Fold each of these.
Amino acid sequence: ISDVFFFQQGTMPSLDLATGRLLLDGPGSLFLSPNGHGGTLTALSDSGVLEDLTGRGVRHVFYFQVDNPLVRVGDPKFLGRHVERAAEVSSKIVRKQSPGEKVGILALVGGRCSIIEYSDLPADVAEERDPSGSLTFHAGSPAIHLFAVDFLTRITTGASGLPLHLAKKKVSYFDPVSKTAVNPDEENALKFERFIFDALPLADRWLAVEVEREDEFAPLKNATGPDSWATVHKAMTGQAAKWLDAAGLDAPPGTPLEVSPLYALDADQFAAKVDKNIVLFGPTYFR
């Protein structure tokens, strides 16, 4: 239990898009919203966790977004390359599937490793291709990073902290004039957010590692269609089928398969543990 830490992400007030006034969520109470995924890093510092990690001799922090069930948590090969290169920040990348895919792009900006948000990448630039026909800006970010603890300490203290960005959002709020709750139909507020990828250009040494999408990236963002539970489920069962095949076992085509992370974290662990005499007839959960 002493090695488990809970810390709270910071919040920021929001402004009325039309007037610039602070929004309320009740009489005399400001409307507050989470300060973006970059707030994870500042919260590590503000909560004292970074100081505790430093005292324990912990040198690196692994970060990923929770909506990707294929992520390899604490991937030892990724960590090993990060340490070998003495990188302050290391990031995994996957090749974009299409110019319009909604993932950030790793690129050099002013000689510094940076991530350009998909919404900031002009359509004509996103469409650019090299002589082989591949996308010029293909290095998509699945938001999987390793950070050196001393680097995080440096960028989250003092004036060198992460910048704030403005985001237009639809926000329900309390109107002090009518004294009623308002539920707008369109964007009505400016929120302040920090982005975790703003840490990358602050690093003096960085590393990017390309990985296979089908092995490590299945984002869950929509109820239906692309990046939905259906595509994530297909990716998870597809990965399990690959592990089964690598172990020399067969399953009926289309059989739903799932491997608990408590059972195995990769194909090698699965092959070393699974019963080679097992015969599968239907949906199977390895746990």
Note: Residues 229-246 form the longest helix (18 residues).
Amino acid sequence: MESIQAKAEAVEVLAGARVLIVEDDFLIAIDLETILAKAGAKVCGPCRTVKEALAAIDGVGAAVLDIRLGEQTVEPVARQLDERGVPFLFYTGQIETDPIRRQWPHHKILAKPARPQCIVMAVADLLK
């Protein structure tokens, strides 16, 4: 029963929130978009490159970032979000080994693949 209430609260928090998705894998990006949109978020993106993400960053309330975008890293996006005070989490397979992740040790990390409920709850936690 507690998890049903927690999920309902998460959906309430996400309702109308602008969430930026930065993910270069098409299928994962679409999956994230679907999960967060069904939970009520207004999804920005998904962005597949740093350039796209930086262009979409204005007005977002939270972000879900993959660390590696092809040969690029998400570092410029994370830096901009951090400077603007926008909370973000990493959704990645690069759990502990990536130096980009170590630059933001206090930001949550979700290991790919994560259950939809875990993604919704983690993004909602960013917005609380």
Note: The mean pLDDT is 88.
